[in-house]
Amino acid sequence: MCTCMLRNPIIAIVDSGIDVSNPIFQNIKISGVSVDFDETANEWGMIKNGDIKDEIGHGTAISSIIVKKLAESNVNPELIVVKLFDKDYKTDEERLLTALKYISENVTCDIVHLSLGITICSKLYELSLLCERLYCQDKIIIGAFDNMGAMSYPASLKHVIGVDVSKLCKGKNEWIYVENSSINILTPNRIHRCSWLNGKETLVEGSSFSAAYVTAFVAQYMKMTDSYDYNTIMNALKVQSASKVSQSYNIQNNQFIMPKKAIVFPFNKEMHSLRRFQNELSFEIMGYYDTIYSRNIHKSCDSIIGGCKRQDDSILVEDIKSLDWKSDFDTLILGHIQALSEVLKKDMHDYFISKCQEFNKNLFSFDDVSKYLCTYRNVNVYSPKTSSGDLPDNSFGKLFRIGKPIIGVFGTSSKQGKFTIQLELRKRFVEEGYRVGQLGTEPHSELFGFDEVFPMGYNYNIELSDQECIPAINDKMHRIELKNPDVIIVGGQSSTIPYFYGNTIYMSPFQQQLLYATVPDCFVLVVNAYDDIDYIKKTINYLESIGQVLAIVVSPVLPKVVLGEMTFRKDISIDESVEMFKKQFKLPVYMLISESDLDKLYLNCKEYFEEKG
Predict the structure, then answer these.
(1) Sign of torsion over alpha carbons 497, 500, 504, 506
(2) Angle between helices 207-224 and 58-71 (to 10 degrees)
(3) Disulfide: which of 70, 411, 446, 592 matches 75 by Cβ 3.0-4.6 Å?
């Protein structure tokens, strides 16, 4: 709690400087510094005392709004100006960090006002720490949001009062207090008349200028009270607001518990990666099970899936009927079994949930089994899903632009090994000491320690509209970003664009939302050896409207059927396809089944981000 003893507030204004000759500042104590580029150190950080002349007018306008509004209440603030930019109008993270660090270490003030911000921040962790330090110093930070509508920094950070404009505000001088959101205050999107350079006035609009009125209110509140802190000021803003937005989707989904010892059923395609990357799991798999109808019983797991680096023929698929439910495994990992239920004419979900309850086992189910939970209340069941509980509260359509490098693994069809590539890339990044964040779209992504999951694959469990999916996925990406990874890997499902527009079977309903919400910097495109050249070209062109296609990986899977208008190339080897694709697309082309090719792919990705800086 800060004690201000009813004195005039001191406001640090980070902007383009100030025109001190303007008559409106005649009785205002003004001092300041500028952030400049240090040619010797080749970085932003040189602080010039007294160099605060405004060359463009923005900082003068902001300061004039604050001073003029406070004069109505006979409050005479002291201004400490930190000139951050000049005619270039640019604010980058290095300049911003330098300014906030200077204020934290050298400036005694009550308010830090920033009518500016950045939408992409690769040093978000450092920026967050600086804002927390200012908060602990009882310096109230007020920041304006980006006028284009994106989430921006520092406005969206914790303990920063973020101000935006909105048509929800009807009155000229009102504001709306927003709860459960990174956006704290909504103000009218109106025209403001304010001072500019050379004593002139101008008409302006936008969140930059609206935020100045919020700062004036906070400064006035400080003058009227003998003590304040962030919480009391937020409460004052709430009390004085015209209305409140408090809609919240805080519905918690069922909680994931990482297994210690698990068994797997059935041993189908979705389960193969659990065996292939068993050494990458944080838990032990006690056995793989299936039904006699699969024709896999007593066969080697590795011989069934192929591609294992060190094949172990002693790991066999066992008959589920032989499972000893009293043995010491704690979790049943249950794959998609709806088709099996139809074949056996028996509700297999009900059967396995009842068994888990009877023998006190946890259940990780790929399929949604929520309808059974009213009957079986004493069993811990987790089904990966995305619902209203995953929506960010009161974001008003704002999205985070992720400041960490993002690799997207996308393909031309399903069943190509895209999940395998994601795991192979992660393994190599981690081995070299990089921190890897991952958003998975496979239901078992969390079993591999992925940070977030959007389960949009087969039999997906998503309870959101198309428009709701984008902010939900984007919020998951932001949560990954906050963990400060060096790189983030995202994987798609099925075909990136439809091969044929005559049937919905060729269309992946969530693929576009995933792309819009994540916006990868670069892509690894997985193709089939038999894919049509023109179709691959269309896919590359589409992806390159978002990021750069770095490489192509050829899947070893061969087609079983050719449908309708599909003109898959036949009778061609993978080696021939690799050479053809190299000549056609002028890109590195690798084989999924080649360990050395996967090493080259990793180096490709790493070198790309090193070159990008």
Answers:
(1) negative
(2) 40
(3) 70
How far apart, in Å, are the Cα atoms of 375 and each of 194, 215, 337, 385? 66, 55, 20, 20
Nearest to 241 by CA among 214, 211, 268: 214
The pair of structure tokens assigned to 485 is 């990874």
Q: Is the pLDDT of residue 561 over 70?
A: no
Q: Are residues 191 and 169 in contact, defined by beta-carbon separation less than 8 angstroms?
A: no
* Distance (Å, whole) CA 321 – CA 305: 22
Q: Please tell me what DSSP assigns to residue 41.
A: T
* pLDDT beyond 60 at 567: no
Mean pLDDT score, 27-42: 83
Helix or strand or coil: residue 20?
A: coil
Condensed to tens digits (0 to 9), the pLDDT of residues 186-245 reads 999 888 899 999 888 999 999 999 999 999 999 999 999 878 899 999 999 999 998 777
Distances (CA, A) of 85 to 52, 204, 540: 10, 19, 39
Please enumerate in sequence order all residues whose Cβ is within 8 A of that of 563, keeping only pairs 6 or more positions apart, or say none.
none
Average model confidence (pLDDT) for the chain?
89
Residues whose CB is less than 8 angstroms from the CB of residue 284 and which lie 6 or more positions away in sequence, other chains included: 260, 261, 262
For residue 52, pLDDT beyond 90 = yes
CA atoms lying within 13 Å on the CB side of residue 537: 8
Buried b (16+ CB within 10 A) or exposed e, 33-71: bbbbeeeeeeebbebeeeebbbbbbbbbbbbbbbbebbe
pLDDT above 60 for 334: yes
pLDDT of the residue at 253: 47
The residue type found at 251 is I
CA atoms within 13 A on the CB side of 607: 8
Which residues have C-beta within 8 Å of that of residue 514, sequence separation ≥ 6? 441, 454, 456, 469, 473, 490, 492
81 has a pLDDT exceeding 70: yes
Element (H, E) at 241: none
Phi and psi, residue 447, nearest 5°: -65, -25
Cβ atoms of 554 and 529 within 8 Å: the answer is yes
Q: What proportion of the chain, given as a percentage, has pLDDT over 90? A: 68
- DSSP secondary structure code for residue 412 in this structure: B
H or E segment and range at residue 255: none
* Phi, psi (deg, nearest 5) at residue 83: -80, 115
d(CA 581, CA 527): 10
